[in-house]
Design brief:
alpha+beta
Length: 199
């Protein structure tokens, strides 16, 4: 394999692995940003539901408020508890039951859902959104990025191969000249002793 080919391959591999690392890190960042958006929405939904439940008799959330909050752009499931007694539930019916017992605190991921619980005035509200959208977004990003990654790696190698020809031409000539070089036999070399100066 020629030096030119080896350098071109190395260039393509370096470009490929550099872009692969960038794609992986940006995918993680994208997932994290999407999760932060989900958390922000969960907080808004939970606060609004808590205010509605505190204001309504029987701690019920009005159907129009439920439709606006839980069936909009960010569909969710929600439960309102008074003490340990469930007084209202709404939104998506497919949420796993393990989310219902969530204690107030930071948002958590459980069973493919992101959930948050808030507590105030003797009421506890639990709101949960499915994480399918976040996961699909990261997967779509990787699906779009992988072909591009391969293409850039191949193009980098091909471009390096083309650009190296004029750069390596002097080196090739030097190597060819070195092959034509014939060493002088030692028998033909006469080394004379240095003459001493007369005292």
């Amino acid at each position: 394999m020629s030096l030119r080919t080896r350098i071109a391959l190395l260039t393509g591999l370096v470009a490929f692995f550099g872009l692969a690392m960038g794609l992986f890190l940006s995918s993680l960042l994208l997932s994290r940003l999407a999760l932060l958006e989900v958390d922000r929405t969960l907080r808004l939904q939970a606060r609004t539901l808590l205010q509605e439940a505190l204001a309504e008799p029987g701690r019920q959330v009005p159907p129009e408020e439920e439709a606006d909050l839980l069936f909009g752009d960010f569909p969710a499931a929600a439960w309102v508890y008074e003490g340990e007694r469930l007084v209202w539930q709404g939104g998506l019916p497919s949420a796993p039951s393990l989310l219902k017992g969530l204690a107030p605190g930071r948002p958590v991921s459980l069973g493919g859902w992101r959930a948050l619980a808030l507590e105030r005035g003797g009421l506890r509200v639990v709101v949960a959104q499915p994480l399918g959208l976040v996961e699909r977004l990261a997967l779509l990003y990787l699906r779009l990025g992988l072909p591009l990654l391969l293409l850039v790696g191949l193009l980098s190698g091909a471009l390096a191969y083309l650009l190296l020809r004029p750069v390596l031409r002097p080196l090739k000539r030097l190597a060819e000249a070195a092959l034509r070089f014939e060493p002088i036999p030692l028998s033909l070399i006469h080394i004379s002793e240095p003459t001493r100066q007369a005292e």
